[in-house]
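Q: CBS domain protein, please. Structure only.
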Amino acid sequence: MKVRDVMTKHLVSILPDVHVREAAQMMASNGISALTVVDELGSLVGILSEGDLLHRRELNTETRRSWWLDLFASDRDLAADYVKSHSRRVRDVMTTKVIAASPDDTLGEVARRFEKHHIKRMPVIENGRLIGIVTRANLVQALASTKELPSPRDTDAMIKREIDHRIAEQPWARRPFSICVSNGNVDITGIVYNDNERDAIRVVAENTPGVGIVVNNLRVVARPIEDG
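A: Structure for CBS domain protein:
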């Protein structure tokens, strides 16, 4: 699944010289947590999110450091904090270093970017043009709308080969396991050294097409002490 399949195409955008209060009202009235900020030509210049409005003079929530942190803060940092909390214009408060997505990015790529950069949303750019926005909520909605794929009528031997192959691909599965498949139902026997590996092997089997019931008879044993 690609970004273009899940992104929000209806954008609520704002110009950079709009008053911060008006921007907050737009976010509240539209039930959204961020606005894309565009110039007169519609090109993206930034994003204004709830996080950008967290520390505001009007709310008495300006950034306040302890006195000893103030000793180490540069004048540049202190001035930037003041502008962020006191300016009335969106351009002074918005985030300008924006990480964007392409409509052809996979959801896996987007999820990794969200996690790596600790962000919740990304504008979607195609040929230099803003065409949408993708958020963490979009990924959750995509997950909720997925349907269970119909299981093909594979033979037991085919199912066993597929499970063996999938387990062999995993770096954590270093020990042999016995897989028995009968009428699509799977029985797994063998030993592992922790509960996480036991559960992971069960999940591999459950996610294999054609599998019905999975009986996990793997035993967790203490890791042997190797001779020095």
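A: Brief note, in case it's useful. The two ends are 50 Å apart (CA to CA).
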